Amino acid sequence: MASSEDFRLRARLLCGAAASISIMSAGAASAQQAAPPASDDTVEAVVVTGFRNSLAQALNVKRSSAAAVDAIYAEDMAKFPDLNLSESIQRIPGVAISRDAGEGRQISVRGLGAQFTRVRINGMEALTTSGGTDASGGTNRSRSFDFNVFASDLFNRITVQKTASAETEEGSLGATVDLNTAHPFDKRGFNFAVSGKMGYNDQAEKASPRVAALISNTWRDDTIGALFSVAYSKRDLLDEGTSTVRWQTGTATSPGFRSVKGVTCATNAAACAEANGAVHPRIPRFDWYRNKQDRLGMTGSLQWQPDDKTTVSFDALYAQFKGQRNEDFLETFTPQTAGACTASSPASCGINQVDVIDYTIATPRSNFPVMTKATLNNVDLKTEQRFDKLKTEFRQFTLTGEHELTDKLKVKGVLGFSKSTFSNPVQNTVQWDQYNVQGYSWDYSGGDAYPVIKYGTGDTTNADAWTLAEIRMVQGFVDNSYKTAQFDVAYDFNDNLKVKGGLSYKAYGTDSTAFARSNGTTANINPISSAELRAIPRSSYAQTIDFSSLSLPAGNVTSWITPDLQKAIATLHMDDVNYGKMVTTTPGTVWTSPFGNSCFTAGCGIYNLGREPSLGSNYSIDEWDTTGYVQGDFKFDVGGVPVRGDLGVRYVQTRQKALGYGVVPSTVSGVNYQTISATTASRSYTDVLPAMNVVVEPTEDLLLRFGAAKVMSRPNLGSLTPGVNISTGSNKTVTSGNPFLDPYRAKTADAAIEWYFQPGALLSFAYFYKDISTFVQSYTSPLSTFDKNPFGLPDSAAVAACGSTPGCSPSLPVWQFSTSVNTPGGPLKGFEINYQQPFTFLPAPFDKFGFLGNYTHVTSNVTYLSSTGVVAAVGPLTNLSKNSYNATLYFENKKISSRVSAAYRSKYLTQIPGRNGSDVEGTKATLNFDASLTYTLNKNLAFTFEAVNLTNEVQDQYYDSSQLVSFYHETGREFFAGFRYTF
Known about the structure:
Layout: H1 4-11, H2 26-31, H3 51-62, E1 69-73, H4 85-89, E2 95-100, E3 103-109, E4 117-121, E5 124-125, E6 157-161, E7 175-180, E8 191-201, E9 206-219, E10 224-243, E11 247-249, E12 259-260, E13 263-264, H5 269-277, E14 279-281, E15 285-307, E16 310-332, E17 355-365, E18 368-377, E19 379-404, E20 409-437, E21 440-443, E22 452-455, E23 467-494, E24 497-517, H6 531-535, E25 542-546, E26 559-563, H7 565-571, E27 589-592, E28 609-610, E29 619-638, E30 641-668, E31 671-699, E32 702-713, E33 724-728, E34 732-736, E35 744-755, E36 762-780, H8 795-802, E37 815-823, E38 826-838, E39 849-860, E40 862-865, E41 871-875, E42 883-892, E43 896-905, E44 908-911, E45 921-923, E46 926-936, E47 941-948, E48 955-959, E49 964-970, E50 974-982
Parallel strand pairs: 4-7, 12-17, 27-31, 34-37
Antiparallel strand pairs: 1-6, 2-3, 4-5, 6-7, 8-9, 8-50, 9-10, 10-15, 10-49, 11-14, 12-13, 15-16, 16-19, 17-18, 18-21, 19-20, 20-23, 21-22, 23-24, 24-28, 24-29, 25-26, 29-30, 30-31, 31-32, 32-35, 33-34, 35-36, 36-37, 36-38, 38-39, 39-42, 40-41, 42-43, 43-46, 44-45, 45-48, 46-47, 47-50, 48-49
């Protein structure tokens, strides 16, 4: 029976303090193709019993790696305070994370965003997607991997490879991340571990459990083994704050305000020019989100080793991440809504009915006036609740076989299948409006945090003072699947040269489906005109939102009334698909749809769901990648100085087929035909990708690294869809993908120096450079009238899409046009400094302390083009943080193991140029502090305490380089207490 010390190598991910561990053993290299090759001097993996010993072992293995890699190995289950897998990976140098609902969701490596990072699980590429808030990207329909689907407890090794080698599969500009689950042969014999924790969030004031367990055994003289592990966590979170959904000028919704300080703008435009020319918040509001999440993961592994030359492994992984989210808002859409106020217009006709009573202008940057304070009459208030059900399921099966044909010749094969399914079967929203409120005001002069918003004559606490205005019902589904077949062969010519090669085939498919309320056309039919529904007392399906947990400036409300969707479903007949059934008639227009919609023939209810209003999110893409590589691993001396490394080339053929939908308008004999049709496009391209890594060891403790390669990354999925699509929700957009985009391509160079100045210590410096010669950019035009669209669409297409939606007309300057184009790219460069040291040189008890820290600096200069090919801006890559660091101070003796960690990410841009007239949009810097403490009672039992987000760091997104608030939310601190038992 294995001891508890023996088992600790597997038990859980070493995440809280693995900021600078770089691990790659020969065993890892043979089990994981993405791992760089190890030389014959590789230090064999040994069992370690504590954090300090595991760090020392990690450094020994790092010295044997040819490529630049950083990794994390499992140490003690439940010892560190990470909420999911991405928060574990952020401890690695150069890795930064983006968060959703207070926990990490995606990563960037060396300044390159999530779409440039490939992720493999147990040797094969995989993709998991989930759904988030709109401010965090919403439903993931891209190639970006959502790490929040997985608990850290499921994996025993994570490797981040930052330089390319020929044997490493293509597809990354930034890094290749390998996730590895445990195997029974990792530690033979019987092993068992279990942990349990109870968490508490001080903002939500809710408790949440987390449990994990692993059991494994080997039989028949350790030739057969089996392992099973499970991890489960539950989380109840309150996510509160404010948002504006960007800013814009009054003239953006021409003609702007109706009057300013008593002067009618239609008769004296000059008197209104200052107010109309300044940017104001588009949707000033307060937000209240309640998130409930369940995360379940299971792994299983069977291994057979009939002799010392053959190993067969079968691995299975299942993960389920599901949740429910309520989003409640108290807001106004008036400042961003256009409409001509006429006798026949609806009660709400937008900014064009607003009288500006008073205002204050600030100029945070030249020629960029901002209306920081304003008092307005005739403002329409809105209160809404949105309810989402979300679920991601991931399944993967991998069969791996390795065999030594001779002492020199080895072969390996991998067969694998993975599938990720995301479903958002319920996304319902009910909105109430309160019209023509007098004396409404906002005050953003206090900075980019919480404003003061007063609602004048509006009644925010009386449900029946509101009017039912809109009901949205949306469904969304995204499926991703991979099928992989791979064969590798390696031949050792002698102790100094190994030649390897391989072939692989990968079939990838993604399907995205979206539904919205539909009458068979693409029109937005969410606004409610039914007198019967409007007459239902709002108090019969109302609730009160308590906002008092936030420290808001004086003058703000601390509670408001909002719809209760659970009550509204029955009250408003939302579960009756035949409610309000009628045949759709569109005078002078004939619609044709491929989706079997019966609204034009048999009729449909007002809650009928169809794909028609969400054509841009309905597509499928199939991709087939055929690759081959050859690589030589070498080792020799030059003047007595050891030199080793790898040199090789990879050939890649990519074939793609994309299907999307669009509306084809035509006019025959005075009849306007709107035909929804599927469009398919196919293309293929090839890449030849040479790669080299060289390691020179001039002294015993000094190591020099050099690397160079050509790399490529395929375009994001949404950029490849054919068809032109019109959306007429709160934003009026026309979008088109480009199925003929070239991939991102770059030439890379890396150099590093590593000094192992004492046992278990490292000081290193790494420089990296990437010349991105082919870039893919999504361009969004300024607001304009529909006839300015670059797709050749007639105004009749906008008329059909607008339907009866207020403020939606081809003649209004409310339209934005988006497409994807290849651009020249530009250079990216930066450096990493990495330091770790156990303080063994200090007197007791300080000799039990140690430190790990790293700092990364990245800059880039990328050219951004307009859809017509004109240079629109030159600036950094989106999602690139110029500076980031991680630091951990630890203490460890036989009884106590404790850590305090900090993770910093500087601000980064998310949109260049920015929308609605801004130069940029971005996210502000974050600094997160976490801590953990483990007390070991005996060799089997330990008690743990953890704290996450100790300073209650906010998520702060901004509009324009003047950093006007766009989204400002806080989620509170989380504390966990629990135990860990091993046997």
